[in-house]
Please model this.
Amino acid sequence: MLKKCVLVFTCLMAGMAVAACSSNGGAACETNDDCKQGEYCANDGRCHPVGQEDGGDGDGSSGEDGDGPAGDDSGPTLCRFDQACPPDKVCDTDSGDCVDGDPCSADYNCDIDYEYCDPEGKVCKKRSPLCGPCSHDHECMDPAMGDMCITYPDKSSVCGQSCGTKGCPPGYECDPDYGSGQDPNPSQCRCNTFDCGNCFVCHDDDQCEGDMICNLAQGTCVNKCDFDTDCTPGLKCHYYTGHCKPPCENDGDCEDDLLICCIPGRGFCDADSTGRCRPEGCMLHSECLLSQGDSLGYCDKTTNECMTGCRAADFSTINDCRSGMKCTCVSGTATCDTFDCCGDPGQPCLCDPAIPGWDCSQVSVCTDGLCEEIPCHERGDVSVACARNQVCCGWPLGDGYPCPDGAPEGECYVAQDPVCRSCSEHATCDIAGYGYGEKGACLDDMDGNTYCHLGCRSSQDCPSTWACDYSYIQGCDPANSSCEATATCDTVWVTEEGETVSGCHCNTDADCPEDIEGFVAHCETMQICDYSQEMPSCVDGKACHFAKACQCMNCCGQLASGG
Model:
């Protein structure tokens, strides 16, 4: 009673200030036992809620209450679990105090199903439940069955619960990052928010993000089912809602008036979908597949109607057009958060609102586009865009050869004169406007005739399947070192018969002559090989090359014969 007397005396000495001395606390107390559950006896001799400072006003703020500065003693922390007490104490949950426990020397001295013997304090302690505090695995509910003490990202240590073939209670996830890794329950249940006081439990689909649904049995947001195999045996995947439920028997069993209970022959229903609730219209793009026309068809899932247009021209994700076609928006666009931008289940998406971090409001597709042929100059390599011996009208862009009459830009056409023009000398193939700065060369073909091969920079300047390469290497006679400029005469290859072929070796273009038969020579890397050996050997070298032109051994003969 001494503490109470001192407080009263202080108030009396204050004279007129007695009113300001009244405490904002609860009932008078001497110990915590004098207070209600959830309160403690503070230094002002009054009961206060746990966590409220002495003299506080109960609204979570602190300040002076008339007795002087507010104290910083928040009182003793009330225990809820034995693990919050010293090793030789247990928690009296009625008072929140740590008290003496029943002594023990081993677990068998305790109620082994619910208790363990603290190895340090030698008292029986109740096992900590799921998400209860712990320091070691043996403190958790069923360590023999794999329950473990796990550490959350905030460094708090709490009890998990083994899971795998076993599930988790609502608000908990079976996390493979925790656990022993041993089947059949290799993981641990942990709070789905990593905050044991605020585990999230959903009660309907609207509480889940993106395209996820609420598993009412688990209270957890999960991915929608796509197939019956995603469900436990006996249940059907009602994939319009994404829930696994018993088969429906009539339309009244379905959750929405717009859904029907499938029987074969009704809408898009078949034997596999019998007993499943779904719209009478389409749900899958494959249900709208077209066998003719430029479009493959797709399902507009906002109306459940089959469409004959397209959504986008992204071949790696959604492609509603046939090969060689692209989608052009002619009827407006829609963003992927309101319009389906995915293939059928299991196929990729241009943007999937169900995936966290994807802002599908920033990605658009055509609402019902038109499939149009992709111009050959947009298809990539000319050898991919066009057939053998064909040229792309408008390729390369900006400086391509003029297209013949009747060949629209973006279309492939068979190479025409002056490609493969008959010739007897190089001068015949030096044609203004062709060659990109390189003169054409008159070269032999496998049919025994000679034809013009136009100059080029790369194979993209040539008809499809042709190569752009040098026609000649500057030859020389080692006996008189006949190379011009500063090149040196040396071997460029040895034939299978052992004959040595010599050419002018160089280091830079400056080592090569400026003009060889009207062509500019260039110092180019090549393989110098000896083919006379059983295993040919090659080394890198450089020699003077000239007459860079479109090359094909038998293509001109094919074109000349109408092939």
